[in-house]
Protein backbone atom coordinates (compact mmCIF):
# COMPACT_ATOMS: atom_id res chain seq x y z
CA UNK A 1 0.00 0.00 0.00
CA UNK A 2 2.85 2.37 0.84
CA UNK A 3 4.36 1.80 -2.61
CA UNK A 4 1.03 2.61 -4.27
CA UNK A 5 0.65 5.82 -2.28
CA UNK A 6 4.21 6.90 -3.09
CA UNK A 7 3.72 6.24 -6.78
CA UNK A 8 0.34 7.97 -6.79
CA UNK A 9 1.75 11.06 -5.10
CA UNK A 10 4.58 11.13 -7.62
CA UNK A 11 2.08 10.86 -10.49
CA UNK A 12 -0.12 13.57 -8.99
CA UNK A 13 2.82 15.90 -8.51
CA UNK A 14 3.89 15.41 -12.13
CA UNK A 15 0.37 16.05 -13.44
CA UNK A 16 -0.10 19.09 -11.21
CA UNK A 17 3.26 20.51 -12.32
CA UNK A 18 2.21 20.08 -15.95
CA UNK A 19 -1.15 21.67 -15.09
CA UNK A 20 0.60 24.65 -13.55
CA UNK A 21 2.85 25.06 -16.58
CA UNK A 22 -0.03 24.69 -19.05
CA UNK A 23 -2.53 26.83 -17.13
CA UNK A 24 -1.63 30.22 -18.68
CA UNK A 25 -2.19 28.97 -22.21
CA UNK A 26 -5.64 27.53 -21.44
CA UNK A 27 -6.92 31.10 -21.52
CA UNK A 28 -6.65 30.92 -25.31
CA UNK A 29 -9.24 28.10 -25.40
CA UNK A 30 -11.73 29.27 -22.76
CA UNK A 31 -14.41 30.93 -24.91
CA UNK A 32 -17.56 28.81 -25.10
CA UNK A 33 -15.90 25.62 -23.94
CA UNK A 34 -16.33 23.62 -20.77
CA UNK A 35 -13.64 21.77 -18.87
CA UNK A 36 -10.82 23.80 -20.34
CA UNK A 37 -8.89 23.09 -17.14
CA UNK A 38 -8.40 19.50 -18.33
CA UNK A 39 -6.36 20.86 -21.25
CA UNK A 40 -3.76 22.34 -18.91
CA UNK A 41 -1.69 19.15 -18.31
CA UNK A 42 -1.55 18.41 -22.04
CA UNK A 43 -0.58 21.98 -22.86
CA UNK A 44 2.04 21.75 -20.11
CA UNK A 45 3.36 18.52 -21.66
CA UNK A 46 3.91 20.43 -24.90
CA UNK A 47 5.15 23.69 -23.37
CA UNK A 48 7.54 22.52 -20.66
CA UNK A 49 10.05 20.68 -22.90
CA UNK A 50 10.19 23.68 -25.25
CA UNK A 51 10.87 26.11 -22.41
CA UNK A 52 13.42 23.83 -20.78
CA UNK A 53 15.19 23.37 -24.10
CA UNK A 54 15.30 27.09 -24.81
CA UNK A 55 16.62 27.92 -21.35
CA UNK A 56 19.15 25.08 -21.54
CA UNK A 57 20.50 26.20 -24.92
CA UNK A 58 20.49 29.96 -24.49
CA UNK A 59 21.21 30.38 -20.77
CA UNK A 60 23.80 27.58 -20.81
CA UNK A 61 22.82 26.22 -17.42
CA UNK A 62 22.32 22.59 -16.39
CA UNK A 63 19.25 20.71 -17.49
CA UNK A 64 17.84 20.52 -13.96
CA UNK A 65 18.26 24.25 -13.46
CA UNK A 66 16.59 24.82 -16.81
CA UNK A 67 13.62 22.75 -15.68
CA UNK A 68 13.39 24.59 -12.35
CA UNK A 69 13.58 27.99 -14.04
CA UNK A 70 10.94 27.00 -16.61
CA UNK A 71 8.53 25.74 -13.95
CA UNK A 72 9.18 28.80 -11.79
CA UNK A 73 8.65 31.18 -14.69
CA UNK A 74 5.44 29.51 -15.77
CA UNK A 75 4.26 29.45 -12.14
CA UNK A 76 4.57 33.23 -12.00
CA UNK A 77 2.70 33.53 -15.28
CA UNK A 78 0.03 31.11 -14.00
CA UNK A 79 -0.47 33.20 -10.85
CA UNK A 80 -0.85 36.33 -12.97
CA UNK A 81 -3.38 34.63 -15.24
CA UNK A 82 -5.26 33.20 -12.24
CA UNK A 83 -5.72 36.71 -10.86
CA UNK A 84 -7.46 37.78 -14.08
CA UNK A 85 -9.33 34.64 -15.18
CA UNK A 86 -10.93 32.12 -12.90
CA UNK A 87 -12.88 29.24 -14.40
CA UNK A 88 -16.16 28.11 -12.95
CA UNK A 89 -15.85 26.46 -9.53
CA UNK A 90 -17.74 23.36 -10.72
CA UNK A 91 -15.33 23.00 -13.63
CA UNK A 92 -12.32 23.11 -11.32
CA UNK A 93 -13.83 20.59 -8.90
CA UNK A 94 -14.76 18.21 -11.71
CA UNK A 95 -11.35 18.55 -13.37
CA UNK A 96 -9.41 17.96 -10.16
CA UNK A 97 -11.61 14.99 -9.28
CA UNK A 98 -11.08 13.56 -12.75
CA UNK A 99 -7.30 14.01 -12.46
CA UNK A 100 -7.31 12.28 -9.06
CA UNK A 101 -9.26 9.29 -10.38
CA UNK A 102 -7.27 8.88 -13.60
CA UNK A 103 -3.92 9.18 -11.84
CA UNK A 104 -5.04 6.61 -9.27
CA UNK A 105 -6.10 4.21 -12.05
CA UNK A 106 -2.81 4.57 -13.92
CA UNK A 107 -0.87 4.05 -10.70
CA UNK A 108 -2.99 1.01 -9.81
CA UNK A 109 -2.36 -0.55 -13.23
CA UNK A 110 1.38 0.00 -12.93
CA UNK A 111 1.49 -1.29 -9.34
CA UNK A 112 -0.59 -4.37 -10.22
CA UNK A 113 1.69 -5.15 -13.15
CA UNK A 114 4.73 -4.85 -10.89
CA UNK A 115 3.19 -7.20 -8.32
CA UNK A 116 2.04 -9.69 -10.93
CA UNK A 117 5.32 -9.85 -12.82
CA UNK A 118 7.64 -9.44 -9.85
CA UNK A 119 9.72 -6.85 -11.71
CA UNK A 120 9.36 -3.08 -12.07
CA UNK A 121 6.75 -2.06 -14.61
CA UNK A 122 6.46 1.07 -16.68
CA UNK A 123 3.10 2.31 -17.96
CA UNK A 124 3.04 4.47 -21.10
CA UNK A 125 -0.21 6.23 -21.83
CA UNK A 126 0.91 9.36 -23.65
CA UNK A 127 1.92 7.77 -26.96
CA UNK A 128 5.43 9.21 -26.91
CA UNK A 129 8.71 7.59 -27.73
CA UNK A 130 9.47 6.39 -24.19
CA UNK A 131 9.38 2.81 -25.42
CA UNK A 132 12.21 3.40 -27.90
CA UNK A 133 14.25 5.13 -25.22
CA UNK A 134 13.66 2.26 -22.79
CA UNK A 135 14.61 -0.37 -25.37
CA UNK A 136 17.77 1.56 -26.19
CA UNK A 137 18.71 1.71 -22.50
CA UNK A 138 18.07 -2.02 -22.08
CA UNK A 139 20.19 -2.82 -25.14
CA UNK A 140 23.18 -0.74 -24.05
CA UNK A 141 22.98 -2.20 -20.56
CA UNK A 142 21.92 0.78 -18.45
CA UNK A 143 18.91 -1.16 -17.16
CA UNK A 144 20.07 -4.42 -15.68
CA UNK A 145 16.80 -5.77 -14.27
CA UNK A 146 13.97 -7.27 -16.23
CA UNK A 147 11.24 -4.69 -16.90
CA UNK A 148 7.56 -5.19 -17.75
CA UNK A 149 6.13 -2.66 -20.17
CA UNK A 150 2.38 -1.93 -20.34
CA UNK A 151 0.66 -0.03 -23.17
Name the descriptors:
151 residues; mainly alpha; two-stranded parallel sheet; 5 helices; flat
Question: Would you mind describing this structure in some detail?
Answer:
The chain is mainly alpha-helical. It has a domain at 2-88. Helix content is 71%, strand content 4%. The protein has a two-stranded parallel sheet. Strand 1, helix 5 and strand 2 form a beta-alpha-beta unit. Helix 1 (2-26) runs antiparallel to helix 4. The radius of gyration is 18 Å and the shape is flat. It starts with a helix and ends with a strand.
pLDDT < 50 stretches: none
Bin the helical content. over 70%
Number of strands: 2
State the major sheet: 2 strands, parallel
Placed side by side, the strands forming the largest sheet appear as: 1-2
Shape: flat
How many H/I helices? 5
Structural class: mainly alpha
What's the topology here?
Elements: H1 2-26, H2 40-59, H3 63-84, H4 89-117, E1 121-123, H5 130-140, E2 148-150
Parallel strand pairs: 1-2
